[in-house]
Amino acid sequence: ETRRSRHTTYSPVNAFLIPPNLRSGSRQVSGLMAADEGCYGSVERSFETRRPGASRPRAPRALIVHGALTTVFVFFGGGSFVSKFGIRGASPLMFEFVREAVVGPLFCLATKAMNGRLIPDACDIPRVLAVGLCFALSQACFFLGLKHENPTVGSTWQAALPICTTLIAASVGQEKVSCRKISGIILASGGAMWMTIGALVASRNALASSGGGGHALFLGQCICNSMYIVQSKPVVSKYGGISLSAWMFLEGTFIMLVSVLVVKASWGLSMFACEDPSRDIMLGCAESLMKIPASMIWPLIYEIICCSLIAWWLLTWSLQHAQASMVSVYTVVQPCTTCILSVMALCLKGKEWAKMYGIDVPGFHNLLGGLLIGAGLWVMLAEVKTSKSGKEDEVLRVSEPHVKGP
Questions:
Q1: Residue 103's pLDDT is what?
Q2: How far apart are the C-alpha atoms of 3 and 264, rounded to whole Å?
Q3: Burial of 171 (0-12, 13-18, 19+ CB in 10 A)
Q4: Containing domain of residue 313, as a range?
Q5: Which of 91, 131, 335, 348 gets the most CB atoms within 10 Å of its CB?
Q6: Domain presence at residue 49
Q7: What is the pLDDT of residues 5-48, one digit of tens each?
Q8: Per residue in 91-132, pLDDT tens?
Q9: Ramachandran assignment for 390, one of left (phi > 0), alpha (psi -120 to 50 degrees), beta (any other)
Q10: Cα–Cα distance, 300 to 96 (Å, whole number)
């Protein structure tokens, strides 16, 4: 009993040295890491530290997890729209560098305030670095792609994310795949992809205008983002969302700085990063690659507060309670948000203003795609309800309350 009581104490030193039979509430994460429920940096860990002897908060209800994921991708959809204004006439890599340079230290302060881990264990450093690399590459590809294409195309390309994530998660044994889950993913992803295909057919020259570079970048972003979701699940289960967010934004800051310097050293790369229909704007951007114009300030503020401090933290928190495929399927909310914002902008500002920023009018293909997306989400939610009644394929891995030994 003495050993059990000692081992149930949350300690950065012994949390992963405790045998499963001596640690109540332990769980195995895909055979990669054994993670105690009291994740370092999590809200639950901070609660116990600040209030010794208090009972642990209950695991979140499925509805709360779904609400958090919806909020995440609504904010991301808004970011796709707003960032288009911030990177016009400016380097998208510089935009992302400033965002990550501001957010990283803020997450470090939050980690310290919540009694989280500022430095991971030595054995986890390679995986943490891999997670940060996937995050940085996905962000770089997205903002570069946004420079070449309109925000609706950028958002709808996220439809590839559920497919990539499910395939990767299943291949590494993180989760099982059911027929209903596959059906929901196909419906939702097909709806979002139909939006993109319909937009290309409507404009006819959209692909030619960018030479396919924007679409290739968005595809690369989806692959990197899928790898981030799968790779980060064991890390966030061990350390919590705040610590992981701090590490990936700090690493992303370094990678973005190196990327900006490399692009600045090559005129060809500078012109590619500063793609714009107006050659004068493109040349001005390439010549002042590291400058921060006034037009970048408000989009940066939105990205820092909504997309980074709120959405990315909610995303990492959701990874503690939901399977990777369930997290990724909510990316289809992103194009719906972007389409709604595009319609609002067109009504308020007019077509000429929208054309200047590369914002297209959503058409019938957007409506049909939205209906398919809704059907896919309904199927996925039905899968969650079935799993709660005791079926084998569990969609939400919500942990049971931790019971301490006597």
A1: 93
A2: 59
A3: exposed
A4: 62-388
A5: 335
A6: no
A7: 333 333 333 333 333 333 334 344 333 343 344 445 554 454 44
A8: 899 999 999 999 999 999 998 888 888 899 989 999 999 999
A9: left
A10: 9
Distance CA 55, CA 53 (A): 6
44 domain residue, yes or no: no
Please tell me the pTM assigned to this model.
Answer: 0.70
**Residue bearing tokens 């640690």:** 23
Structure tokens at 119: 């430095």
H-run or E-run covering 33: strand 33-35
pLDDT at 400 over 90: no
Could you tell me if residue 131 is inside a domain? yes
Asked whether residue 308 is assigned to any structural domain, the reply reads: yes
Q: What pLDDT digit, counting tens, does each position of 171-219 carry?
A: 777 767 777 777 777 777 777 677 666 666 665 544 444 556 777 888 8
Tell me which DSSP letter residue 307 carries: I
Q: Any long-range contacts for 268-277 (C-beta under 8 Å, 24+ apart)?
A: 270/91, 272/144, 272/213, 273/91, 273/92, 273/93, 273/144, 273/147, 274/91, 274/147, 275/147, 275/148, 275/210, 275/213, 276/88, 276/89, 276/147, 277/358
Residues 6+ apart with CB under 8 A from 215: 145, 149, 153, 157, 207
Q: Do you know the residue count of the chain?
A: 406
Residues 268 and 289: beta-carbon distance below 8 Å: no
Long-range contacts for 47-52 (Cβ within 8 Å, ≥24 apart)? 48/10, 49/115, 50/115
First to last CA, the chain: 7
Find out whether 362 and 342 touch, Cβ atoms under 8 Å.
yes
Structure tokens that stand for 23 in this block: 């640690």
